[in-house]
Amino acid sequence: MLKYLNISWLNQTAHAIRMSFRDVGKGWFNIYEKKWEFYGVSKLSRFMQLVRFRMQYALRYCIEQSMQMFVNLLETPCLCTYICEDDYEWDSRDLINSPFRTSTATLFYFHLMMSDNGPYYTTDPAQFEIVIQRLFREMLYRCHFIPQVHPMIMTGLVFDKELYLTSVGLMEPNVVDYRDRLLKAYRKSIIPLKAYMRQYECYREIYMLNIEEYVE
């Protein structure tokens, strides 16, 4: 999506505006203007402001929809674990069937392994929260660097090199709400994972057993 916003979206918008005003010539909508004092009072300047506002609205809508889809995708499989409290213990009588079922597709796979230090997962469950939060934050951060389109059209004027569209802020209420939902989802989901892993602590001695010495 970022590639489209940074390249295709800007180029297509700039091309459409240039094609519309290229033959207008001098006047209120002169895209070849070279003097700021004339451009500042022209109708083209106000039109470009309108374009900027509309693009910012479209960008915000796109980001909000993407955030919602991202959070729903990652949160839904975890909803079945919301009944778990921090002191949850896995039923040791059944280590094969899981009481936690979700109708959505599985997003992540990892294996339970054993070492001299005890049971462990091939991917540390605590890392999911860290990585997902980083992806969420990085996505929003990069959306703050979508260039404005009018420097691509008004090539006769000199603009600041860092003119970007206003995007969704990292501390806006809906962003904070989405972030909190992700935190809750993955903090809850690792509770039964840890509880399940603890059930294999009793097999640590068997794993470390020296078979030859035991046979002798």
From TrEMBL:
<protein>
    <submittedName>
        <fullName>Uncharacterized protein</fullName>
    </submittedName>
</protein>
